[in-house]
UniProtKB/TrEMBL annotation:
Native source organism of the sequence: Candidatus Moduliflexus flocculans
Domain DUF218: 77-244
Domain of life of the source: Bacteria
Protein name: DUF218 domain-containing protein
UniProt cross-references to Gene3D superfamilies, sorted A to Z: HUPs
Length: 254
């Protein structure tokens, strides 16, 4: 039920939804000029605020700075790589199409090759509401093997649909194989939610963030207040992460 609800509410986290909504309300209320101007002003204000780099950068920096990358890395039993990087709709086992966050699997492979861990755990099935026939973990196994990771070093958790299920199912896999010490690799802004989920199921991983989108040493500049259409996508993505934190907390997942 929680998985379905999260998918239903997803459109309400799209900044463009509110820009268009206020614009439509302005159009509908054209016979009431005062009200129409209010809605139009709200639409323009949202368009400006949501499309400047300042807001998404500030929000994402807050999450990315929660966990520093550990140095030096100690040897562990396994590296866990969370899914969320493959465009499953157009991917096949022989040809994977990556979207964002491909650094997750690349860094996992690198750590295994460096001998930081003995096993590579790939966690994640499909996040689709309607199609559960494909599994991202299964596709990533072949990708890892193509990059030189022996099949016997790879463990799969191929069925989870979200971060909480990642944690629950991976914890079961760890118990089955006697694994206790792990590094958790995911996008840096996703680490707070992922770490909360794993701790909830009794696993205390070493956090390892990748795919950073902010610079902790940067300062405000004029360019931070210049609108760009691409910032709408960035804000959508980070709002989903904050929404996930709130919902997971409410559901008792973290």
């Amino acid at each position: 039920m929680f998985f379905v609800l999260s998918k239903i509410l997803a459109p309400f986290l799209e900044p463009l939804t509110y820009i268009v909504l206020f614009a439509l309300l302005a159009l509908i209320s054209f016979h009431k000029p005062h009200l129409s101007k209010i809605f139009l002003s709200l639409s323009l204000c949202c368009a400006f605020a949501f499309s400047t780099p300042f807001l998404p950068t500030a929000l994402i920096r807050h999450l990315e700075q929660r966990y520093a990358r550990p140095e030096p890395l100690l040897h562990v039993d396994a590296v866990i790589v969370l899914s969320g990087m493959v465009v499953l709709e157009i991917s096949t086992p022989d040809k994977i199409e990556f979207g964002d966050n491909s650094e997750r699997i690349l860094e996992g492979i690198r750590l295994i090759k460096q001998g930081v861990a003995d096993k590579l755990i790939l966690s994640g099935g499909s996040g689709s509401l309607t199609d559960q026939t494909k599994s991202e973990a299964r596709m990533l196994r072949q990708f890892a093997m193509d990059f030189g990771i022996p099949e016997e070093q790879i463990l799969l958790e191929p069925d989870s649909r979200n971060t909480y299920e990642n944690a629950v199912e991976t914890a079961k896999l760890m118990r089955q194989h006697g694994i206790s010490s792990v590094i958790l690799i995911t996008t840096a802004s996703h680490l707070p939610r992922a770490m909360g989920c794993f701790r909830k199921v009794g696993v205390e991983p070493i956090p390892y963030g990748v795919d950073f989108h902010s610079d902790s040493n940067s300062h405000l500049a004029l360019s931070d207040f210049i609108p760009e259409i691409g910032n709408l996508r960035g804000l959508t993505w980070i709002l989903h992460e904050y929404f996930g934190l709130v919902m997971y907390k409410a559901a008792g997942y973290i």
